[in-house]
Structures are given as C-alpha cells and as structure tokens.
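Q: Convert this sequence to structure tokens.
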Amino acid sequence: MDYRLKVLIILITVISVAAIPIPAFSQAVIGARELSMGSVATALPESDWSIFSNPAMISGTHPGISFYGVRYYGLDELTDLAVALVIPSSIGSVALGAHRFGDDLYNESRLRLGYKHSYLGFHFGMVANYNHLAIGGGYGSAGVLGLDVGIAAMILEGLWLGAKATNINQPAYGEYGNIREELARDLSIGLSYQLSDLVLISTEMVKDIRFPISYRAGFDVRILGGFRGRAGITTEPVTFAGGFGLLSKSWTVNVGVQQHENPLLGLSPAMDFRVSW
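A:
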C-alpha cells in the first residue's frame, strides 16, 4: 500500500498546482446524502452524485438513475434540481448529469459527461461540463465548457483518500466580450473511513480563493436494516445538517436538511431518489 499512497500524494500535488484558484463563485454540493453529512463528497464511496463532485468516485458496479431537489432557505427562487445516470462497463464507467438552479429571472444550468476508470487500485475520472447562464429581462445568456478531474484510492481497508479540481481549463462567461465572469474553481481533498457495516465517517477541506478554507465532516450510521441516520457540519460558512436514508437492492431514498448559522435564514430541505438495476 505504500507505493499507492506515495503516487496518490504526487497526483494530488499536481492537481493542486493545476488548480491554483482565481476569483470565482463556489458551488453547492449535489445530493441529499451528501448535504445531510455536512456536504462531504470528495471521498464518499458509492455516491450517486459523484459526477457532480469527484468523478473518480463514480460507481463501477451498479447502473442506476438518480433524481435530486433542494430548496435553499425555503425560497422558491433558490431551488436546485438535478438528475444523474451511471452506466458501468468493463472498460470504465460513463456518467451523465444535468443540473438547474434558479428561476426564469436568473438561472444556471449544467450538462455533464463523465468517465471513470481504475488501474492497480487507483481510481481516476474526468468530467466535461457545459455551463449555461441565463438572465431574464432582456439581459441575455451565455455558455462555456469546463473540465473537472479527480483521483482516489483505498489506501487501507475501508479508508478512502480522494481529491478533485474543478474547471481546470479556467473557463469564463463572456470570454470574447467586454464582461468576463470566471466560473468557480476550487480544490478539495477528503477522507472517508468505513469503521464497520454500521458507521461511515467522512471529512474534507475545500479551498476557493474568494473564501477561507472550508472544513466539512459528517457520519452515516446504520440504525436498522436499510434505515440510516446522518449528521454533519461545515465551516465557512458554519452550517449544521442531518437526515436519513432508506436503502434496498433496487432503490434508495435520501432526505436531508441543512441549517445556516444565521438564524434569519430558513432551513434548506433536500431529497433524492435512485433506481438501480
């Protein structure tokens, strides 16, 4: 395992250099399980939403389609909707994803195509991400293509280390116009440890140039059969989250809720549903 850890550290260093952050907006996590565990996603194994977080963690075993929705602070205008499809094969896993945030006055959309493969215990993936921004009232719209990369490995039994970088090609809206708005670029490094069949613990740190480093941590506990309970916390900003999940062989339902440290902001409820075959 020593060589695997050394090589992974080198790869993370390379990604870190390629992802030297520039002014950008941060992006929220996708997935009710992830949100309820403190928005951890970088090293979360068997995540249905890895195409939106770390493509190296895209499932290589079970095909399936997932649907997600969250309403931030209880406001209709701040609604996220997403769908993801994963198709594993003997030569790697292909994933498709779509995401929309906002309303008719302002909305952001993403179409994502990802590929993940593994070799000698290393998992690596890449996502091509078409971003589209539309502003009502005659202000127009714009689109641009970004590239995300990720790596991961199980360095000890049950212990995953992962890293990902977003928009490494430095895309920006208005690239050839008078207004240039750069897309979010951040780097995250995370760990997840499966203590037993009962408990999964995950933590990570995320850096975006516009904000201090955000530390995130959460856990997932099997309570009874396929019923799981979850909780998590983040810094910068400080948020508290919790939720539960119902799992079976062919379907999964996850429900989560997040509370911002500012008491004036309402709860952010989220739910996702997955069907696998």
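The first strand starts at residue 64 and ends at 71.
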